[in-house]
Amino acid sequence: MTLTVDEAGRTVADPGAYADDARLHEALALLRRESPVHRVERPGYNPFWAVTRHADVMEVERDHQLFLNAPRPMLTTAAFDAINAERARQGSALRTLVHMDDPDHRVVRAIGADWFRPKAMRALEPRVRELARRYVDRMVELGGECDFVQQVAVHFPLYVILSLLGLPESDFDRMLKLTQELFGGADDEMRRGEAPDEQIATLLDFFAYFQRLTEARRVDPTDDLASAIANAEVDGAPLNDLDTASYYVIIATAGHDTTSSTISGGLLALLEHPGELARLRADPSLMPYAVDEMIRWVTPVKEFMRTATEDCELNGTAVRKGDALLLSYPSANRDEAVFDDPFRFDVGRDPNKHLAFGFGVHYCLGAALARIEVRAFFEELIPRLESIEAAGPAESVATTFVGGLKRLPVRYTLRT
Questions:
Q1: φ/ψ (deg, to 5) at 313
Q2: Does a cis peptide bond (omega within 30 degrees of 0) precede residue 351?
Q3: What does the pLDDT read at residue 406?
Q4: Which among 75, 340, 348, 369 is placed 20 to 30 Å from 40, CA to CA?
Q5: Three-state SS string across 65-129, please?
Q6: 318, β-bridge pairs
Q7: Mind telling me which InterPro entries this protein's record contains (predicted)?
Q8: Helix ranges restricted to H, 184-328
Q9: Hey, what domains does the chain have and what are their CATH numbers?
Q10: CB contact set of 274 (below 8 Å; sequence gap of 6+)
Q11: Is the Cα dihedral 375, 381, 383, 385 positive or negative?
């Protein structure tokens, strides 16, 4: 059956489509060809424009005054939109960097910026490489077969980011579960429950945990990112409890879930393209290019939303003040106008103008750390590989926001 443009548009708001690459990319390719700024009306969601071409996503990202993150920074159901709007009116809504616009965004982003600058990343890299070795060693301990996602990939970047925050290792499993519930709210296996109140409860659990952490770090500051956040001041006053907890949430969740998705999705890409794995083994100097290709290929952040502050035009389409736009990063990262043979996984792709980290003032704060982690892991794994193959089907998370594989059974032989 031939897919219509309207059906393709509705696919963008279907969590199940993001667990089915072929279905998703068929829809996105059709939208890029025939309706690159497409009005989507899907039951259960407030209407929005799906923006699918690389150039158009860039145009929206560049103009952060015409297109704001607030009040709808990501795609949620109409029921969640209503809950979030009411919480915003009450002053109790989540306010991460994702939710903020300037001037608040600029000031609050600066609180953690120094921890992700090149100097700090160079200082952190030995620790990252140590942890990479630990988790490749863990693969050896698992006896030559494992679920790579659940037993390796989700733990390595989680350990990195929570160590940076200064959280005790005893809390890591709790953070992992809360993160999976937060980003897996549309997935039957990951979510806490179907009702909006049950999913909001995940955020409240995050807030309660981080409020206690804030109180502890203000009484007894330590040399970690959690203390920097807890004791930060804006205009001479500490961040309020909600903004402090929100800062922790974005660092602790986005700081590891996106990287684990890239590592697991990157390994699957190498398994599905053995010639590229052989090419990378033969020429390790390709690793920096391979890392960015894995990031492009997986695109763990599927979308962000923007709201137009004035009537405007985008690629010949009239957009009205107050209209919401969904920036489709998987689509932009497969745009035929930008990428040579975009559906080919190429570990030497150069240039690689992917938008997986966004663009402009909202460019991902942890992009450098993510690249270091992915590179460190594969630079440890690949030289030790004697053989590796799939041991069962890979499965992906149903989501419209952040996600990747939730299972990747593999069978392998590794040098110790």
A1: -130, 135
A2: yes
A3: 93
A4: 340
A5: CCEECCCCCCCCCHHHHHHHHHHHHHCCCCCCCCCCCCCHHHHHHHHHHHHHCHHHHHHHHHHHH
A6: 313
A7: Cyt_P450 (IPR001128), Cyt_P450_B (IPR002397), Cyt_P450_CS (IPR017972), Cyt_P450_sf (IPR036396)
A8: 196-219, 225-230, 241-272, 274-282, 287-298
A9: 5-414 (1.10.630.10)
A10: none
A11: negative
What pLDDT is stored for residue 127 in this prediction?
Answer: 92
CB 242: neighbour CB atoms within 10 A?
16
pTM for the predicted model, two decimal places? 0.94
Q: How far is CA 351 from CA 29, 65, 185, in A?
A: 21, 29, 35
Helix (H) or strand (E) holding 328: strand 324-328
**For residue range 172-213, what is the model confidence (pLDDT) as tens digits?**
888 877 777 766 656 666 565 566 666 677 777 877 888 888
pLDDT the model gives residue 191: 61
86-106 pLDDT, tens digit each: 988 898 777 889 999 999 999
Distance CA 395, CA 409 (A): 9
Only one residue has tokens 């975009």, namely 342
Q: Which residues, in sequence order, are CB contacts of 123 under 8 Å at separation 6+?
A: none
